[in-house]
Amino acid sequence: MRVLGIETSCDETGIAVFDDEQGLLSHALYSQVKLHADYGGVVPELASRDHVRKIVPLIKQALKEANSSVDDIDGIAFTKGPGLIGALLVGACVGRSLAYSWDKPAIGVHHMEGHLLAPMLEDDAPEFPFLALLVSGGHSMLVKVDGIGQYEVLGESVDDAAGEAFDKTAKLMGLDYPGGPRLAKLASKGVEAGYKFPRPMTDKPGLNFSFSGLKTFTANTIAAEPDDEQTRANIARAFEEAVVDTLAIKCKRALKLTGYNRLVVAGGVSANSRLRENLAEMMQQLNGEVFYPRGEFCTDNGAMIAYAGLQRLKAGQTEDLEVKGQPRWPLDTLEAV
Ligand code: KG4
Ligand code: ZN
Questions:
Q1: Nearest CA to ligand 1 atom 3
Q2: What's the whole-model pTM score?
Q3: Which residue's C-alpha comes closest to atom 21 of ligand 1?
Q4: CB-ligand 1 contact for 179 (6 Å cutoff)
Q5: How far lies 161's CA from each of 177, 209, 236, 251, in Å?
Q6: Which of 277, 297, 299, 40 is nearest to 179 (CA)?
Q7: In this protein, which residues make up the domain named Gcp-like (predicted)?
Q8: 116-162 per-position pLDDT tens digit
């Protein structure tokens, strides 16, 4: 079975072709980063309009690179939610309509299920069950995963998502959008300078996160310290360490609770090197294994949507004819495969 995947939930147009025997045949990505940079964040209406411009050329490109004609495609998967409604509707409209006109089944994919399954695109894919730490710009959650669609959300952020905390803190430090990778780069030049950043919500039981206080703590630290490049790098490093440590503490707790020894880390923030190193070390100490998608599949992409869609289409799940987006969509309401 061969599936065309379409991702348009936020500021990346991602298109891919995935075949269950041959694997990933192509993937094309257009990032709108430059378009939104002047505004310091994603402008939803501009995002929707840019998806409209890019989606058809990228579909043509991905099909060509996959050496696939319409006849070779067995189904179309598009991100149905969660995300920005206008952006979602572009992918849903094009995906659903193409499927109708090509007489193929369509499936609406949950964006976070796409992230969660992204490590399956790698050669050393994890086996079920596992614990997943999903850390993106819109969500932070710990999920007990027993199979595709068998998800129990054990904890999530009560305020900012991890990526959002990176982005907002980066803005405070005068860094351009998207702040996460820029803050990480600045942090890599920082040295240990004795800052005592909090590890929010680690002193009480539970698996929820809260990151908005860290942002305020960073703002106060910046205001109290001299304004030079090295100091900013040191503060960035202390902030990054606090986020990474907090995530690691909660992962360890969730692993203990579930008894699982496989950890999957996905979503944009899983591209962060300090997080990857820290969790790799922790899993080694725990005699477990950690799985990440390759760098380009940590952030939004079409490959993860094609993969997730294929699993659901293979199980006979399909979308009806109505074009819908679902901006809010709890992960644990998905049907098991
Ligand atoms: O998964 P994603 O591409 O989009 C959403 O579904 O939200 O995640 C984007 C988020 C942004 O907040 C971005 O700043 C963050 O991931 N991010 C990073 C890094 N790369 C991307 N945060 C920290 N370190 C990075 N290297
Ligand atoms: Zn995402």
A1: 299
A2: 0.97
A3: 268
A4: yes
A5: 16, 8, 17, 16
A6: 40
A7: 24-307
A8: 999 999 999 999 999 999 999 999 999 999 999 999 999 999 999 99
